């Protein structure tokens, strides 16, 4: 549902960033025909690749941050997503692009 709404908004000319935060069973990259990695898992585990590597433009015009590589996702516990400061830094960097 999120991918459909994101594509609809992009079709109306809106700038859309969709972040797949489902670290256990990510699917947004599949729905948008994009790569699954790198992504949010890389940001959370402090590998911090450049913004240009974390966000990919999809065919429908949505900017997607996938969940990340399957190998890295399994290493996170339930508290991994609590690192909101890193996500805020990313959002600021992305907005500045």
Helix and strand topology:
Blueprint: H1 2-11, E1 17-19, H2 28-31, H3 40-44, H4 51-54, E2 56-57, E3 63-65, H5 70-73, H6 84-95
Parallel strand pairs: 1-3
Antiparallel strand pairs: 2-3
Question: Briefly, what is this?
Answer:
With 97 residues, the protein is mostly helical.
**Rounded radius of gyration (Å):** 13 Å
> Helical segment tally?
6
Total strand count, please? Answer: 3
Gross geometry: globular
**Residue runs with pLDDT of under 50 for 5 or more positions:** none
How would you characterize the largest beta sheet? 3 strands, mixed
In words, what does this structure look like?
- The chain has 97 residues and is mainly alpha-helical.
- It is 40% helix and 8% strand.
- A three-stranded mixed β-sheet has the order 1-3-2.
- The mean pLDDT is 79.
Task: Output the keywords.
97 residues; mainly alpha; three-stranded mixed sheet; 3 strands; 40% helix; globular
């Amino acid at each position: 549902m999120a991918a459909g709404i994101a594509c609809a908004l992009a079709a109306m000319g809106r700038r859309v960033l969709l972040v797949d935060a489902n670290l256990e069973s990510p699917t947004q990259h599949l729905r948008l025909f994009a790569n699954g990695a790198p992504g949010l898992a890389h940001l959370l585990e402090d590998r911090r690749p450049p913004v240009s590597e974390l966000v990919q433009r999809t065919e429908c015009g949505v900017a997607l941050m996938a969940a990340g590589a399957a190998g890295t996702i399994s290493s996170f516990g339930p508290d991994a997503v609590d690192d909101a400061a890193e996500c805020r830094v990313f959002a600021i960097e992305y907005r500045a692009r």
